[in-house]
Fold:
Amino acid sequence: MKATPRLLASAALLLSQVSRAQAQEAEKPAKATSETAATEAASTGAMSPLLTSASLGDQRAVVMGNGGYDSARSGAIMDSAVDVRVWGPLALRLGVTYSDATKRMRPSVGARAQLLQQRVQGVDASLTSVFKTEGFDELEGEIETTLAIGRRFEHFYLLGNVTYGQDPEGNERDGELRTGLFHQHGHAVVGLEVRARAAIGPQRVPNAAVEPKFDAVGGPIAMYSVSSFAFFAEAGPTTVQLPGSDLRWGVASLGGVGSVF
Structure:
């Protein structure tokens, strides 16, 4: 009978060690899953500072922010956005962008819808509509709609955007074309992306003489995932044209971080 307490104590110690080992093993898949989700989001352009991703992914939310400098505009670059899935294929998008024209932070709000998924239809597609309190050539604000189409080819992901924006009164309009190619290797993603924007037709507002007619930026981007975060950096040529002037050339460089939940 005296051995019974010792046996019970030994059994309790053994059970506690087994439980601790199981808990540690359970934590490993969770960490691997968060790293995989962050890498997956980065590889489909969800962390891109220039493009809108064609896939909402399986995560509940994606948050990203970046900052840098554009020598063609002689001004700072700063942008942040969050996509939160609210129901099925629909997500709410909130953002804040630094305006070089007004030297202020300008918010935006909109929605994204997943139209197609590669695992079902063979291609990813999403439609995003956002109200920005300031646009490319609409200093009083614009409604911007983007169609994004993407497809994965093994470790490569090809992404393209077509964007149209105009102010609520329809006095100013602009269009954008964006494209990017991303390659995933482990937790690293490297790619090349470019964006070009141009005013469409006459701009019937008093400040049209100081608003850009055209701009373009692009370059290589490198991203690396650590846990649920993805850190990225990008640099490349940039150009901007104001009414009545020649193209001004420079270099844009920026860095940032994104996360998935």
